[in-house]
Amino acid sequence: MRIVLVGPPGAGKGTQAAYLAKNLSIPHISTGDLFRANISQGTELGLRAKSYMDAGQLVPDEVTIGMAQDRMEQPDATGGFLLDGFPRNVAQAEALDEMLKDAGMKIDAVLDLEVPEDEVVKRIAGRRICRNDSAHVFHVEYNAPKKAGVCDTCGGELYQRDDDSEDTVRKRLEVYHTQTEPIIEYYQSQGLVTTISALGTVTEVTQRAMAALPSE
């Protein structure tokens, strides 16, 4: 099964992608992982991406598409995959369709994780990270530390990343609405989209997502 996962920042795409991929026994392909892998391995596409990133510029669609195509052609993806963060815009979605068509394949389902904008802001702006270990993550409301500003695990200082400030989150949402949200309409025209509430526990959202998938 070939699935595209869509949703705004803070919708829990990464978490859901990992659970769904495991349940379906298909690889989880995320844009972030693609960039990190290509850059760390020094591939031609990775070097091109890094040159743009180092200059503070957006990586061109053709580079991202090339990375995604290389990954989807790996042996573990022949039986399907779950895409998270790709396609990011309609041009990438069209390129993906062409890619799959050439290989005699197609996207089977698009899962749109829906969450109110105020909830997105609350989820992200409330995050606090430990300065000693970024794996120690808390939330001022949903997972508050025993002592404000102090990591329960190691006693390190908790801080809010610049990317997690409310102003930054709202700007990220604007980018999502402008660039990525149009792919939902693109896939709706193909009858592929199911919108799922991303509110509730991780398990509840996963169950909704699994129930929305077409039976093979």
Automatic annotation (TrEMBL):
One of its GO terms (biological process) is AMP salvage. Its main location: cytoplasm. It catalyses: AMP + ATP = 2 ADP. Its EC number is 2.7.4.3. Residues 127-163 form the Adenylate kinase active site lid domain. Keywords: ATP-binding, Cytoplasm, Kinase, Nucleotide biosynthesis, Nucleotide-binding, Transferase. One of its GO terms (cellular component) is cytoplasm. AMP binds at residues 31, 36, 57-59, 85-88, 92, 161, 172. One of its GO terms (molecular function) is ATP binding. It is found in: Cytoplasm. PROSITE patterns: ADENYLATE_KINASE. ATP binds at residues 10-15, 127, 137-138, 200. InterPro entries: Adenyl_kin_sub, Adenylat/UMP-CMP_kin, Adenylat_kinase_CS, Adenylate_kinase_lid-dom, ADK_active_lid_dom_sf, P-loop_NTPase. Pathway: Purine metabolism; AMP biosynthesis via salvage pathway; AMP from ADP: step 1/1. Residues 30-59 are annotated as: NMP. Belongs to the adenylate kinase family. Consists of three domains, a large central CORE domain and two small peripheral domains, NMPbind and LID, which undergo movements during catalysis. The LID domain closes over the site of phosphoryl transfer upon ATP binding. Assembling and dissambling the active center during each catalytic cycle provides an effective means to prevent ATP hydrolysis. Catalyzes the reversible transfer of the terminal phosphate group between ATP and AMP. Plays an important role in cellular energy homeostasis and in adenine nucleotide metabolism. This is Adenylate kinase. It comes from Streptomyces smaragdinus. The gene is adk.
